[in-house]
Automatic annotation (TrEMBL), chains A, B, C:
It catalyses: RX + glutathione = an S-substituted glutathione + a halide anion + H(+). Conjugation of reduced glutathione to a wide number of exogenous and endogenous hydrophobic electrophiles. Belongs to the MAPEG family. Signal peptide: none annotated. Homotrimer; The trimer binds only one molecule of glutathione. Its main location: endoplasmic reticulum. One of its GO terms (molecular function) is glutathione transferase activity. GO terms for cellular component: endoplasmic reticulum membrane; mitochondrial outer membrane. It is a multi-pass membrane protein. The gene is Mgst1. This is Microsomal glutathione S-transferase 1. It is found in: Endoplasmic reticulum membrane; Mitochondrion outer membrane. Its EC number is 2.5.1.18. PANTHER family: MICROSOMAL GLUTATHIONE S-TRANSFERASE 1.
Amino acid sequence: RRGKMAKSTQLIDNEVFRAYATYTAIVLLKMMLMSLITAYFRITRKAFANPEDTASFGKGESAKKFLRTDPDVERVRRGHLNDLENIVPFAGIGLLYALSGPELSTALLHFRIFAGARILHTFAYLIPLPQPGRGLSWAVGYAVTLSMAYRVLTAAWLL
Amino acid sequence: RRGKMAKSTQLIDNEVFRAYATYTAIVLLKMMLMSLITAYFRITRKAFANPEDTASFGKGESAKKFLRTDPDVERVRRGHLNDLENIVPFAGIGLLYALSGPELSTALLHFRIFAGARILHTFAYLIPLPQPGRGLSWAVGYAVTLSMAYRVLTAAWLL
Amino acid sequence: RRGKMAKSTQLIDNEVFRAYATYTAIVLLKMMLMSLITAYFRITRKAFANPEDTASFGKGESAKKFLRTDPDVERVRRGHLNDLENIVPFAGIGLLYALSGPELSTALLHFRIFAGARILHTFAYLIPLPQPGRGLSWAVGYAVTLSMAYRVLTAAWLL
């Protein structure tokens, strides 16, 4: 079956596409990790959003006090939303970029810088590092996506 | 034209890709449904986020009181954000997975379990069901995406 | 290399796919613009979410007062989240739609209306325009995505 698939699409046999697949899987997994970190802080800080999540702490007032926001939880959630806002455009524009026939070395440069910047961004957000650490790592990832979008629009332009 | 398209890509003629397209469309439509449910609760609970949305209730103080948060609205919004956090990685990693040449039966197993888990998750969130109903349905969808990511990284690895 | 890529996938040489790539890049760039607008309002309104972002305003109480929500910032953030909720399904379902072999003219009609509706939606949210301006522009984009999803499910259905 692998042979048939490869014959009909061959996308996965293309080196640029393989690099895209590798880095996109990595940054999407990194984004998914934010869910686990949120859960970790919700449990250790005892700060939940839904009444049914506090049922194990007893009923009534004793459970109600755990329905609250916590600064650490909110920080992870902001990092998660920032990932959505930045990794989604990377994944979408990156796919189009990978299919536009760039040089492998150029594509790898884009993907590596983006993945590195987003991993740095997560550390900068969660530690947290003093600014402009988080701002710069955000800007680098943003610039990589803009660069890929420029290539996509140049190669594909059909309005 | 359909013939020309099929000849140049043939993706849509690949059974694994057709299964991916079907399930991805279904879970994205399910995610879009959350917008309508949010609108339904905003209107029935009279709880809006923007001043211009309350203009039909009159001007000044009489309208201002509808600029508020409502527990039911916030619950749907949390479910919607959870969909974004989980269905986006599924759609992205699932596409790469579908292009990595898996067995149709294995791919269908992944897609069916994910779609079922996310539909259950929505019911668990909106009814709401007691925990660990929501937690388990979330974890099952998460595990399916991890399993597909493992296959993608094994098949495509190019760092 | 471009020639080799084109031979192995040819996706970028397909006119419908080129149109999809163009419009998806445009709406994703528009979504990314919301980050810059949020930053602009955070800086001009002096309203930040993270303590480390206010360090340049001094230490202690003098900086703490800038850790606050601002109506203009929150409005842009709601617009940004609405983009995520609507542009993500468009990008995902639109890719499947583009690969399902639609007529170029029909595809262009879908993409153009969606992009126009989302650009209008942003203006309606940020100015803000009185309702139902924002509601209608949202509904038009939503309907376009539903129409593409119908086509995808008809062409690909494999459950």
